[in-house]
Design brief:
Radius of gyration: 37 Å
Structural class: mainly alpha
Strand order of the largest sheet: 1-2
Number of strands: 2
Shape: globular
Helix content: 55-70%
Oligomer: single chain
Strand content: under 5%
Low-confidence stretches: 1-16, 31-35, 48-67, 81-96
Largest sheet: 2 strands, antiparallel
Order of helices and strands: HHHHHEEHHHHHHHHHHHHHHHHHHHH
Length: about 525
């Protein structure tokens, strides 16, 4: 069937015979002197057909009546024009509510506000304005105040301040800036910790969106906002809050770099990993882990020489941050090192007194407080203590080689425990705090673990089976690294805190997958796994 011509379309060209007769008739009507010889009819090009339609032929034009354009009555046309004018006028007069291309920051601000409020509330209820530092927080507080007072990175000794390399420098330095502004206020230092901890959920949102998508990112961010461990450890003057934030930030930069590799981004990744290492030296091997993880994806987007160049830029960024601190420690201790006291912590977790107490196995004690180590360490420098501690720890491990599996199991059980207390953890709040009575009735970590950890296990399965498993594998790889450190050193909630945002990411991936399956089953659909 031939297509009908459009209304008001260009008429089809007349046949040649018809054109000749029309020209002869016009010539006959002229006066005798003005008649001209009939000219050959000029061929007219066929009218262009509308896009997607065949050109009309003479036969089609003669056989099919062109369709008329539907016209509205005059009143209806005027009303339509008036309505269009009003609609256009209303849209233009309203004005843009937000500049084009700018994201809506209100959900992000709400996330940060809730995170900060929970952490500040914990600081207020657990410690109060009259908080006093103790244990490791006392050491960090002294370092920060000595820095703020101009006495350098030093601890208090019997004969006055002495320089040390036993504490990572990032958190004391940040706290010293606050002390320099407001004075020596331990409660102000706790509020700084709360602010640093509140930065973690927005960073998790960005990391989760880059790895898994926006829904998973938002779920993980809100999980981190209310996470009992992340809230609680943001209320102590320790390294956990700063290191957790720095770790998530470095991972976010690494993921962004792999998705769009650039030399400047590679250098920035190295700088951020160096910053995370200054918060806690256990992050030092992670740039190498990131480079190994990124090796295959980078090969798909850049040339081999450029890939090597960008990996080298990461190493350069790490060195730019860490070498000055190592040079400082060389001048202070005589050893080019990031931190002393690492071997001493190794002995704290691997000694006969600890292993002989079944209630404390898998944890740690202080070798400075037990014999024979107290005598061995007396009068020694930090480097000498490290040398003695390393030798004593390995001597104990070699003597108990048959019990290594039991030691590893005890440390893993403490590291991944689902309850708040593991035995010998000490006080975590002021004795007058109302949180103590509430925690005695309901263990928030137990409730959290029963809900979140199964979802995280399901999320890990989905990552392992998913089409983007290599790209998303950075999350379980970092979790595995910190779990291995717990087997080597000691198991506990404190060394587990930095990976809790990553556990929340896996839990969010599991929750999002479960939500998707429920919605599909509710609509009568089924899931068919595609080929890899």
């Amino acid at each position: 069937m031939q297509p009908a011509c459009r209304a008001r379309a260009a008429p089809c060209a007349p046949p040649a015979a018809t054109a000749a007769r029309a020209a002869a008739a016009r010539n006959a009507a002229r006066p005798a002197g003005s008649r001209r010889a009939p000219a050959a009819p000029r061929a007219r090009p066929p009218a262009a057909a509308p896009r997607g339609r065949a050109n009309c032929t003479a036969r089609a034009c003669g056989a099919v009546r062109p369709a008329r354009r539907a016209t509205a009555p005059p009143d209806a046309a005027r009303r339509s024009a008036t309505l269009r004018g009003r609609m256009i006028q209303r849209a233009s007069s309203a004005g843009p509510s937000r500049a084009a291309g700018l994201p809506d920051l209100r959900p992000w601000l709400a996330l940060f506000a809730v995170s900060l409020a929970l952490r500040v509330g914990f600081v207020w209820l657990a410690h109060g304005p009259g908080a006093v530092p103790y244990s490791d927080a006392e050491q960090l507080d002294a370092l920060a105040w000595n820095l703020a007072s101009g006495r350098g990175f030093a601890l208090e000794g019997a004969s006055g301040p002495y320089p040390t390399a036993s504490v990572p420098p990032l958190m004391p330095w940040l706290t010293s800036l606050l002390y320099r502004a407001v004075g020596h206020s331990y409660f102000a230092g706790l509020l700084l910790q709360a602010a640093l901890g509140a930065l973690t959920p927005p960073l998790v949102l960005s990391l989760g969106s880059a790895l898994f998508g926006s829904p998973v990112g938002w779920i993980a961010a809100w999980l981190c906002a209310v996470h009992p461990l992340l809230v609680a450890f943001s209320g102590y003057l320790l390294t956990e809050a700063a290191f957790t934030t720095a770790l998530v930030l470095a991972l976010l930069a690494s993921v962004t770099w792999v998705k769009t590799p650039r030399p400047g981004r590679a250098l920035g990744v190295g700088l951020l990993w160096g910053l995370a290492t200054l918060a806690r030296p256990t992050a030092l091997p992670l740039p190498a882990l990131v480079a190994a993880w990124a090796w295959v994806p980078l090969g798909l987007t850049v040339r081999p020489a450029e890939r090597l160049r960008q990996i080298a830029l990461i190493a350069a960024g790490v060195a730019i941050v860490l070498v000055p601190w190592c040079v400082r420690n060389l001048n202070v201790t005589g050893t080019f090192t990031l931190k002393t006291a690492g071997p001493k912590a190794f002995l704290d977790a691997n000694n006969p007194a600890l292993w002989a107490d079944p209630a404390r196995r898998g944890g740690a004690n202080s070798a400075f407080e037990i014999e024979p180590y107290r005598t061995l360490f007396r009068g020694r420098s930090e480097v000498e203590v490290d040398s003695i501690a390393s030798a004593e720890a390995w001597k104990f491990l070699h003597a108990h080689r048959a019990e290594w599996p039991a030691m590893a199991a005890a440390k893993l059980a403490r590291f991944w425990r689902v309850t708040r207390e593991g035995g010998g953890t000490g006080a975590w709040a002021d004795v007058r705090s109302p949180l103590l009575a509430a925690a005695a009735r309901v263990d928030p970590l137990l409730v959290w673990s029963c809900v979140v950890l199964p979802c995280a296990a399901w999320g890990l399965v989905r990552v392992a089976r998913g089409p983007r498993r290599w790209f998303q594998a950075i999350v379980p790889l970092v979790i595995l690294w910190f779990t291995a450190l717990a087997v080597l050193y000691w198991g506990g909630l404190r060394p587990r805190v930095p990976i809790e945002p990553l556990v929340a990411l896996l839990a969010a991936a599991g929750l999002d997958e479960a939500r998707r399956l429920v919605r599909m089953r509710g609509r009568g659909l089924s899931v068919i796994e595609g080929g890899r």
